[in-house]
Amino acid sequence: MKKLLKDIHEKTPIPEDLDSRVNQAIYRGTHSRRVLPYKKSLISIAASFAIFILLINTNSAFAESMRDIPILNEICRVFTFKEFDTKDSKKIMNVKIPNINITGNTDLENRINYKIRKTMQDAIDEFEIRAQEFYDAFVDTGGKPEEFRPIEVNIDYEIKSSDENHVSFIITKFETSASAYQDTYYYNIDLISGREITLRDLLGPNYKEIVLQQIKRQIENLDDERKFFLFDDVDISDLITPDRSFYINTDNNIVVVFNKYEIAAGAAGMFEFVIE
User: Fold this and answer.
1) What DSSP assignment string belongs to the chain?
2) What's the CA angle centered on 168, arms 220 and 271, to 5 degrees?
């Protein structure tokens, strides 16, 4: 798997002036102030970098301004997001939506970002309709408007892995109303070709057999408590399709994901299988 990803993207260009830009930055940093003891300097640098990354990911204006600084450009163009929190008598929304700005491929970025925004906006619109329906039902059955408890949705993202060749991340929507449920959206982007990565891309035309064989072996090794929840009437081979949900972990291995109720009772939660 690791070798496959490496082979696919071996031709990734590296800026010719990267070394000189790094050296210039180091020179400016070490000659612009008094040199501190080694250990204290490391702590200071780590703290400064942590604050820097925090600003990039929480302040879009700061992240935008950093893009014009050549030496910092590669760091800043990882992920930015649109974030908003709203609350009223019917609903509470805490939303973070990722926005890719790292590829240098404008068409790819626009296409992926549009898909993300469209999917998330549809989810938000559905949630707002649902919140209104819950509120109306509560009032229509004799509830006092001021006693209605707003329903809540949280939308956030998590980067599973990234390098100069690919980025793999998920967006999670968690909603609480009368009950709680979660939707997860998976994105695996090839930054060189500009395409979304599929299981076939990574494992070849026999991807279904490869994935199924490893999943069956891992299921056999599950403990009895976990096995108890598995459905007897589900053929997993029918679920290994070209659009099967997965992400790429930090070891560059595929992790195939089955959501609640797909192959087991809801009490078992999600199932993840690492395909090496």
Assistant:
1) -HHHHHHHTTT----TTHHHHHHHHHHHHHHSSPPPPHHHHHHHHHHHHHHHHHHHHH-HHHHHHHTTSHHHHHHHSSEEEEEEEEE-SSEEEEEEEEEE--SS-HHHHHHHHHHHHHHHHHHHHHHHHHHHHHHHHHHHTT--GGG---EEEEEEEEEEEE-SSEEEEEEEEEEESSSEEEEEEEEEEETTTTEE--HHHHH-TTHHHHHHHHHHHHHHTS-HHHHHTB-TT--GGGG--TT--EEE-TTS-EEEEE-TTTSB-GGG--EEEEE-
2) 25
Q: What are phi and psi of 269, to 5 degrees?
A: 75, -155
Q: Which two tokens stand for residue 119?
A: 């999917």
Q: Do strands 246-248 and 166-176 pair parallel, antiparallel, or not at all (unpaired)?
A: unpaired
Six token digits for residue 193: 């070709």
Q: Is this prediction's pTM over 0.85?
A: no
Q: What does each of the 276 residues of the chain score in pLDDT, given as a tens digit? A: 544 444 544 444 444 444 444 344 434 444 444 444 444 444 554 455 445 545 554 454 555 544 444 433 343 344 667 788 999 999 999 999 888 776 667 787 888 888 888 988 999 999 999 999 999 999 999 999 999 999 999 999 888 988 878 889 999 999 987 677 788 999 998 888 778 899 999 999 999 999 999 999 999 999 998 999 999 998 999 999 988 999 999 999 999 999 888 999 988 889 999 998
